[in-house]
Structure formats: structure tokens, C-alpha cells
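Q: What residues go here?
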């Protein structure tokens, strides 16, 4: 079954084409730096253990343009992998916010699209892009079944004490205001890999997803018991453009002092804050260059970014009442040794000791970066949200077939 998976993040679109049940992709690609300078599409085609990659530097101002470029590259003679869009049987779409409506994957219908649209205000950097992406994909691949897989699903096991906010109960009952948590597909995938690696199904682990958006999860025996993002993907860690945890009064204060509308404050906190607010850049590679040039603000931003992670490690170790492993994943987590080093520095009290040399080695594989004496293992586990989505699509379709469709 040919399954094309579209994973659109806030700054990138990733795609992979699988011929399931084979878990090795036929091709994969990354549309990067969307809306920034030097945006590009990197398309990789695999045959056996050979890989052929092409990178096209293009002007990609938004996710809509990115999706159209993906459609072109898949069928482009020479670098494409299909002759006809009808060869795609299923398109699996990552959808960040599923609210309380979706705790499982769903076949996309007009009603499902309406629900995704209703959640725009709760995931302003994501759901609008997903919606457009789905609409374009439906036109590009009209014969395929389109399936949405939601970031929120993995976190549905959180106990109420972890997901409720201490605001009047009616806001929960009337508006479902609660923490949902995001990046669930990634936390789920790296959790499974880690438990298998540790050979310990009941392990207590902390998964740290550091991409453009960043989140952490406390996972006990494979079940999420807490996570750092909240009602929306704005909460928790410091991110590329998002502030993470903040005293809610800051919002009121800005509205009073500057006369800002709620919409303006929303844009400031989601798009102009985080590493961008502190350094002018969202991409950690750009910020590292500033640090190398002696830029104090960039250094402070890195320290703040890592300190926030460290505080969550401490609180999740307490929530779990034990810790077997800390797992770094996603763009920053997999590639940025400085962020990992700063986040794990001086955590020997918790039994976490990083091995500087192992931490600096670059590899696309699951690896251990703690010392052999470290009581808690520190791992880098490459995420694969696309494979997880393809797997969930197959499960959903075989389940619906068994139901007699
Ligand atoms: N070699 C690298 N060193 C440091 N950071 C990196 C490196 N490669 C990628 N990144 C970071 O990863 C981020 C993208 O991560 P990713 O998980 O793809 O994000 P998203 O899915 O949110 O778009 C980039 O913004 C950049 O900060
Ligand atoms: C939920 C979220 O922040 O996703 P991403 O990191 O892909 O932007
Ligand atoms: Mg991502």
C-alpha cells in the first residue's frame, strides 16, 4: 500500500512515501526554512542501501507553496518516484490539534475538516497549514484515502491532576480548557524505541522533543503522565518563536501598557518570542554562529533555553518518582550537542552525567551519550513521526476493513 505522509511543522514540511508494510521509505523530503531566506526542498530517493538526494533552493513563503512543490517533485522525471498521482493510495496527514474530539486517527471527511478548522485559534501556527495542506493534497491525490493523525492523542493518558488548570471548573466543562499536549506522535515513537533499547517495558523516562516547537513528556511504562505543552503548543519550553511558560499577567500588562489587542499579543507570544525574541533568529544554527562571534544575547538565550529544560527534567523526575532515561529527539535534540550539554549540566544529583565526547559525535542512529557510570541513561533517539503516522494509517484502515467496510 503506497502511503504518502505529510508532516507539516511550524517551520518545515516533511514527507515520506512508504510501500507498507515495508517500513523503509521509497523517498523522503524536507521543505525547510518556510517563510525565511534560503528556503529549500531536499528530496531523497532510496533504492536498496543507496540514497540519491537533490536540494532545490526555492522561494517558499508559506506551507501552501511547500505542498505544491512536494507534489511536483514526486512526479518530476529524473527525481520523482511515481509517474501518476493515482499511485498514491493513502495520504497520512499530521494534524497538531485534535481537541477533545479526536483521540484516535480519523479518515478525513468534510466534517473532520470543519473540526480541524474550529481548532485554528488553539494551534495558530499549525492547524491552518494542515487544513490548506489537506485541501491541496486532496486535489493532487484525488483517488487516495486521506487520514488525519493527531499530535494530541498520546497525551490522553495524563491524569486529570496533570491536565487541569486551576481556573473555575465551568471553563473546563463549558469550553474544554485543559492541557492537551502536542508532538504526541513523536513522543510515542521515541518511547517505543527507548523501551525496546532499554529492554524494560516499565521504564520511567523523560522524552524531550526539541524542534522549532519544543515539548517534554514524563512517560511511565509507556504511558504519558505529564507533558509541557498545554491548551495550545505555546506553553512549556522556550521554542524557536514561542515563549513557553509565562506568567499570564504579562498578557494583561501588555494589553494595558501598549493598548494591544488579544490578536496582537497572540502574535507576539507565538511568532516573535522564544529564541527569535531573544536573538532575532529561530534556527539554532544561526544562533550558534552568533555565539561563536561573541554575541552575549545569543549565549544568554541558549542558557535560558537549556535551563527551562533542566527545570522540567527535575519536576518530571519527581512526578515519575524515579528515572531510567532522558531522551533527546527532533531537529535540535538530535543535532545540537551544545543544547544537550547545557540542559544536562550539573544534574549529577539526579544521576545524570553526560559524556562530552559521545555527546559531540554526530550520527543518525539511536545512541547513548551518558557516561557508563551515569545512573540515568541519556539517549539521542531520532524521531520518525512519518513512519509512526503511516503505521497508524494502516492500523486504522485494517480496523475499518474488519468492521465490515
Ligand atoms: N545541525 C543542527 N544544529 C543545531 N540545530 C539544528 C541542526 N539541524 C536542525 N536544527 C534545528 O532543528 C530545527 C528544526 O527541527 P524540526 O524538528 O525539523 O522542527 P519542526 O518540525 O518544528 O519544523 C531548526 O529550526 C534548527 O533550530
Ligand atoms: C506542536 C508543534 O509545536 O509542532 P512543531 O514542533 O512541528 O512546530
Ligand atoms: Mg516537528
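A:
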Amino acid at each position: 500500500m503506497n502511503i504518502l505522509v505529510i508532516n507539516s511543522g511550524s517551520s518545515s514540511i516533511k514527507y515520506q512515501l512508504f510501500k507498507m508494510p515495508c517500513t523503509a521509505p521509497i523517498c523522503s523530503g524536507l521543505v525547510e526554512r518556510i517563510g525565511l531566506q534560503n528556503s529549500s526542498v531536499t528530496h531523497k530517493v532510496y533504492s536498496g542501501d543507496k540514497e540519491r538526494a537533490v536540494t532545490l533552493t526555492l522561494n517558499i513563503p508559506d506551507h501552501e507553496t511547500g505542498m505544491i512543490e512536494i507534489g511536483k517533485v514526486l512526479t518530476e522525471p529524473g527525481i520523482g518516484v511515481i509517474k501518476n498521482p493515482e499511485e498514491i493510495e493513502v495520504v497520512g496527514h499530521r494534524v497538531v490539534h485534535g481537541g477533545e474530539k479526536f483521540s484516535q486517527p480519523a479518515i478525513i471527511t468534510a466534517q473532520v475538516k470543519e473540526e480541524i478548522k474550529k481548532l485554528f485559534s488553539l494551534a495558530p501556527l499549525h492547524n491552518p497549514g494542515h487544513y490548506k495542506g489537506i485541501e491541496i493534497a486532496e486535489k493532487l491525490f484525488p483517488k487516495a484515502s486521506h487520514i488525519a493523525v493527531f499530535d494530541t492523542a498520546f497525551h490522553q493518558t495524563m491524569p486529570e491532576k496533570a491536565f487541569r488548570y486551576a481556573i473555575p471548573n465551568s471553563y473546563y466543562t463549558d469550553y474544554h480548557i485543559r492541557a492537551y499536549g502536542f508532538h504526541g506522535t513523536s513522543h510515542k515513537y521515541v518511547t517505543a524505541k527507548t523501551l525496546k533499547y532499554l529492554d524494560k517495558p516499565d521504564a520511567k523516562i523523560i522524552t524531550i522533543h526539541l524542534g522549532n516547537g519544543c515539548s517534554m513528556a514524563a512517560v511511565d511504562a509507556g504511558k504519558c503522565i505529564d507533558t509541557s505543552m498545554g491548551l495550545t503548543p505555546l506553553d512549556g519550553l522556550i521554542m524557536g518563536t514561542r515563549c513557553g511558560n509565562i506568567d499570564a499577567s504579562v498578557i494583561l500588562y501588555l494589553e494595558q501598557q501598549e493598548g494591544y489587542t488579544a490578536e496582537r499579543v497572540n502574535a507576539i507570544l507565538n511568532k516573535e518570542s522564544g529564541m527569535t525574541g531573544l536573538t532575532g533568529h529561530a534556527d539554532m544554527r544561526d544562533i550558534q554562529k552568533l555565539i561563536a562571534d561573541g554575541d552575549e544575547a545569543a549565549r544568554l538565550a541558549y542558557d535560558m533555553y537549556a535551563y527551562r529544560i533542566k527545570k522540567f527534567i527535575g519536576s518530571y523526575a519527581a512526578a515519575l518518582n524515579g528515572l531510567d532515561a532522558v531522551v533527546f529527539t527532533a531537529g535540535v535534540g538530535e543535532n545540537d550537542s551544545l543544547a544537550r550539554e547545557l540542559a544536562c549540566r550539573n544534574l549529577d544529583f539526579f544521576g545524570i552525567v553526560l559524556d562530552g565526547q559521545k555527546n559531540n559525535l554526530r550520527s543518525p542512529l539511536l545512541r547513548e551519550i551518558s557516561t557508563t557510570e551515569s545512573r540515568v541513561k541519556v539517549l539521542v533517539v531520532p524521531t520518525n513521526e512519518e513512519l509512526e503516522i503511516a503505521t497508524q494509517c494502516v492500523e486504522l484502515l485494517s480496523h475499518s476493513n474488519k468492521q465490515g467496510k
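A: Context that may help when evaluating the design: The domain at 2-150 is CATH 3.30.420.40 (Nucleotidyltransferase; domain 5). The mean pLDDT is 95.
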